[in-house]
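To whoever picks this up:

The parser on our side crashed when reading a file containing two proteins. I've narrowed it down to the boundary between the first structure block and the second sequence. Both blocks are reproduced below exactly, byte for byte. First block:
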Amino acid sequence: MTQKDNETKVAAAGAFIGVDLRSKIPAYLQIVEHVRALAASGNLTPGDQLPTIRNLATAARIHFNTVARAYRLLDEAGVISTQHGRGTYVVAPPPSAQARQERIRALDLLVRNLLQAAVRIGCGPEDVQAALSRAVGRPATEHRRRSHR
């Protein structure tokens, strides 16, 4: 822990979570943004343990409910996981390849449902393709030319 006037930094797995009491930004938002930035930059990695709510609150000279609010927001956002009695840890973001596959599966399901609905109203795949091209703002023939290159 380091203190400089109204600013406190608390070590978390080699990185520092800072709270500036003079800032116009609420302390809980400072903690949220700091932890997010540390996780995004790789300074906090999955499995790293954060300070307990009480330890961070005491070191930063803020109420423990302020830290609890920040941790709750981070937990809801999937940045950390609080395990009662064990601590609070940084969690791994879903692998981008896995997340992309899940999005593609969901999109495929939507397209199948769209095609089934189109058939029920008497439209074929070409009609659906033309409608999709109009919806994204380019003519179907332009889309076909680009996809055949």
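<<boundary where parser fails>>
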Amino acid sequence: MWTDVDVDGRDSTDRIAQMVKSSHHHRQLRVIMLDSVTVAGFNIVDLGRLCDEIHLPVMSVNREKPSEARVKKALANLSDGEEKWRTIENAGKLVEMRVGRTKLYSHVVGMSRENAADIIRISSTRANYPEPLRVAHILAHGLCGGITNTIKS
């Protein structure tokens, strides 16, 4: 599955939902795992709405804890920055989880934090990071010569 979204746009939730629902694998999926609530700069994924639309739990996983102050400062440069910040806040509390000695940070919607932590631990087989996200990142760069080459601006 793949899709494209606008840089700093507002189409990520709709595009991801459309991608998932139109996939032949939709019935096999049990959770959607994203690398962040932000894609293509500040195109914010509304995790709650995505969960509702695709009828699957959704989680974002960050390697580093995002700086609230830096995110707000960057969003101030966008005309819809306040609305984008509310979408981030609506994703819920950022939860710290551990895989081995590595801290990861996650927003979780549609399942318990305990189940999300189990999914992260179980799927982190080759590194202290979920294998689906690690492989997706490698594939995106390999197929596209760098993920930013596929994003519409």
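After patching the parser it read the second block fine. Helices lie at 12-22, 47-54, 68-75, 81-90, 113-123, 131-144. The first strand starts at residue 32 and ends at 34.
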